[in-house]
Amino acid sequence: MSISTGGENLKKNILPLPLIILLLLLICTQTFMSKASSLTLNLSPSKQKYNVGEQVNLIGNLTQDGKLVSDALISLEIRNPKNELFIIRAFTTGQTLQGQFPVEITSIIPCDSGGNPKYTFVRGDTMGFKVTFKNNMASPCQALITINMFYCNGVPFKAFIAYEGSIDAGKTITFTIWPILIPSNAPTGTAAAYACIFNKLPTDGGLAYSPEKNATFNILSASAIKQTVKVNNGKFNITFPLTTIPIILGNYTTYAVTFYNYRLASTTCAFNVMLIGDINSDGVIDGKDISIVCRAFGATPGDLRWNPKADLNSDEIIDGKDITMVCRAFGTEVIIDP
Fold it and tell me: Contact at 8 Å (CB) between 324 and 313?
């Protein structure tokens, strides 16, 4: 009797099989979730309020299981109080991503209205960009391309959607967007543009297909544009300084050609670029050159200390004028053409 009663009590304490399975599943799920990796993206400003003229500083990181991730692609978008696109970027968290991207921008080139490359623009002028992108996937997809422009001082001044539409599998698309107005009060210097490609905007949950591509261009004031070609009734004069470009010493050759009234005409000429004051011809005017002039100070042709290279103004006497010339050009450095 006691055994029979004990068996009945035991049966009463045994849970139904479906309930046991459910409990096991819950335990397994809890265990899996506790062991599953977690990805966390953090972003915050260094302070809550900024004064006009201050620099905004956003601090962020991406971690997986508490460890920083350095090879991820981040999509970032900032809008202004009017809900207008202000900044939009697509960048990696550190490392250069390897392999082929599903969709990517292959180039962004500053250009004129005809799509021809152009890298210098004047304040108040219009400019454009020629962009090429490619779908590396085996199926068509939606693409949204944005361009974000920054002044030389890092201030963003324009952000906009340049393209939105589908692109077929394996296809490459090139388009030109123009005109883009450069403000009349734009800071002069080297500006930058960043092109990003998304499936949709980050504010709508969109992701970047690939890291951004960038291009640089120069903004000049109207007064900074000098007339380098002057023409007058069939005559022309061409001038340009050798101070605003990397200067290479040596011979320069000029070719000119024209086709007019079914006739072809051409001409060529050459000129040499030298660095006056570079007495030892090492491509830089420094203390060595000043020393050479000083050692020959006061000498004239026929003197033992005479050095014709130190006679910079060719007046057959090495004096204060020659020392002044080499001192004024002190620190000038050029590339010597081998």
Answer: no
What's the fold here for domain 231-338?
Answer: Type 1 dockerin domain (1.10.1330)
Do residues 140 and 146 make contact, with C-beta atoms less than 8 angstroms apart? no
Distance CA 284, CA 286 (A): 6
Instruction: Write down the pTM of the prediction.
Output: 0.60
Residue with tokens 């072809």, as numbered in its chain: 264
Reply yes or no on whether the pLDDT at 1 is more than 50. Answer: no
Q: Which residue has the tokens 């090879």?
A: 71
Q: CATH 2.70.50.60 residue ranges in the chain?
A: 60-223
Question: Going by C-beta distance under 8 Å and a sequence separation of 6 or more, which residues neighbour residue 315?
Answer: 321
Q: Which two tokens stand for residue 213?
A: 């591509």
CA distances from 16 to 21, 23, 29, 304 (A): 9, 11, 20, 118
The architecture (CATH level 2) of 60-223 comes to Distorted Sandwich (2.70)
Q: 165 phi and psi, to 5 degrees?
A: 170, -175
**Residue 176 is encoded by which pair of tokens?**
């030109």
pLDDT tens for each residue of 278-334: 898 888 889 999 999 999 999 999 999 999 999 998 899 999 999 998 898 888 777
- Report the distance separating Cα 24 and Cα 43, nearest Å: 39
